[in-house]
C-alpha cells in the first residue's frame, strides 16, 4: 500500500507557490522524515496529505483518492505550533473525549500516558500543563486513535531534547504505523531509523532516500545536515 502524490501544487491566496508539481510515492507503513529549511513547504505538504488544503493534483492513500478540503480519516495530524485546546477536567479524561470510556479504553489511555511519561499528570487539569506536556498529550492522543498514518509537524518542538528523543524513538518502533515527522532536531541516531528522508527546498522535494545514502554523497541534504550540526 502507499501514499501516492501526483503533480501536486499548492499556491496560497497571496500568490506564494508553496508546492511545485510534486510527485511522490511513499510505501505504507513506513517511516518518513521530512526535512528542509524554513519555508521549504514541509507544513504545506503535511496539510495536503491530510486533506486540509485544497491543492492541484491528486493524493491517493492506500488506493483511495483524497477529497479536496476534507480531512482523511486515515491520518492523525499534530500540527505545527498548534495551540492545543484541552477541555477535559483531567489529563486522563482528555483522551476519552467523544468516546464511551469503557474500562478497556481507560486502560489503553493510561498505557499511552505512561509511554509519554505523562502518568504523573493524569489527574491534573490540562490547563496547568506546559506547552511541551500538551504536545506530548497531542501525540499520545494521536496514538490512541490508532490511525494508520501519524503526521507530526514539529510535534515535539516544545519538548526538551531528551524527552523528544525518547518519544521519537518510541514512535519509530511502533508496528504498522506510517510516521511522517517534520523535525529540526537532526539527530543522526534517529534519522538512521527512518526508511526515507525527504529533503525539501522552495516547494520541491530535492532529494529522497535513506539517511546513509544521502549523507554519503555531496548532497544538498548533506550540506544542510552539516550546517545544522
Ligand atoms: P515549512 O513548513 O517548510 O517551513 P511552509 O509549508 O509553512 O514551510 O511554507 C511554505 C511557503 O509558503 C513559505 O514561503 C511560507 O511563507 C508560505 N506560506 C505558508 N503558509 C502560508 C499562508 N497561510 N499564506 C501565505 N503563504 C504561506
Ligand atoms: Mg512548517
Task: Note down, in words, how this protein is organized.
The chain is α/β, with parallel strands linked by helices and 229 residues long. It has helices at residues 42-49, 91-94, 103-115, 131-144, 161-173, 188-191, 211-215, 220-228, and strands spanning 2-11, 17-27, 31-35, 56-61, 64-65, 75-78, 149-153, 178-182, 196-201, 204-209. The chain contains 8 helices and 10 strands. The strands form 2 sheets. The chain has a 6-stranded mixed sheet, sandwiched between helices. α3 crosses α4. The longest helix has 14 residues, at 131-144. The structure holds adenosine-5'-diphosphate and magnesium ion. Magnesium ion is lined by residues 42-43, 80, 153.
Strand order of the largest sheet: 6-7-8-3-9-10
**Secondary structural class:** alpha/beta
Instruction: Report the β-strand fraction as a percent range.
Output: 25-35%
Q: What global shape is seen?
A: globular
Rg of Cα set: 18 Å
- Counting DSSP H or I runs of 4 or more residues, the number of helices is 8
> H/E element string?
EEEHEEEHHHEHEHEEHH
What are the distinct ligands in this entry?
adenosine-5'-diphosphate, magnesium ion
Mean pLDDT: 87
Number of E-state strands: 10
Low-confidence stretches: none
| Oligomeric grouping of the chains | single chain
Distance between the termini: 35 Å
Q: What does the largest sheet look like?
A: 6 strands, mixed
- Helical percent range? 25-40%
Amino acid at each position: 500500500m502507499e501514499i501516492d502524490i501526483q503533480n501536486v501544487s499548492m499556491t496560497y491566496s497571496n500568490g506564494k507557490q508553496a508546492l511545485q508539481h510534486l510527485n511522490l510515492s511513499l510505501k505504507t507503513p513506513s517511516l518518513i522524515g521530512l526535512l528542509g529549511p524554513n519555508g521549504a513547504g514541509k507544513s504545506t505538504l503535511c496539510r495536503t496529505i491530510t486533506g486540509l488544503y485544497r491543492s492541484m493534483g491528486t493524493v491517493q492513500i492506500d488506493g483511495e483518492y483524497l477529497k479536496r478540503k476534507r480531512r482523511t480519516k486515515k491520518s492523525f495530524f499534530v500540527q505545527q505550533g498548534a495551540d492545543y485546546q484541552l477541555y477535559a477536567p483531567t489529563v486522563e479524561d482528555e483522551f476519552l473525549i467523544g468516546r464511551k470510556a469503557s474500562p478497556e479504553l481507560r486502560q489503553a489511555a493510561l498505557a499511552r500516558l505512561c509511554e509519554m511519561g505523562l502518568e504523573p499528570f493524569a489527574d491534573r487539569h490540562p490547563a496547568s500543563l506546559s506547552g511541551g506536556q500538551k504536545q506530548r498529550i497531542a501525540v499520545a492522543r494521536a496514538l490512541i486513535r490508532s490511525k494508520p498514518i501519524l503526521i507530526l509537524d514539529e510535534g515535539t518542538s516544545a519538548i526538551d531534547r531528551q524527552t523528544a528523543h525518547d518519544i521519537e524513538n518510541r514512535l519509530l518502533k511502533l508496528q504498522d504505523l506510517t510516521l511522517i515527522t517534520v523535525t529540526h532536531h537532526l539527530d543522526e541516531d534517529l534519522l538512521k531509523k527512518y526508511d526515507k528522508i525527504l529533503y525539501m527546498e522552495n516547494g520541491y522535494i530535492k532529494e529522497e532516500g535513506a539517511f546513509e545514502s544521502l549523507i554519503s554523497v555531496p548532497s544538498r541534504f548533506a550540506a544542510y545536515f552539516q550546517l545544522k550540526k
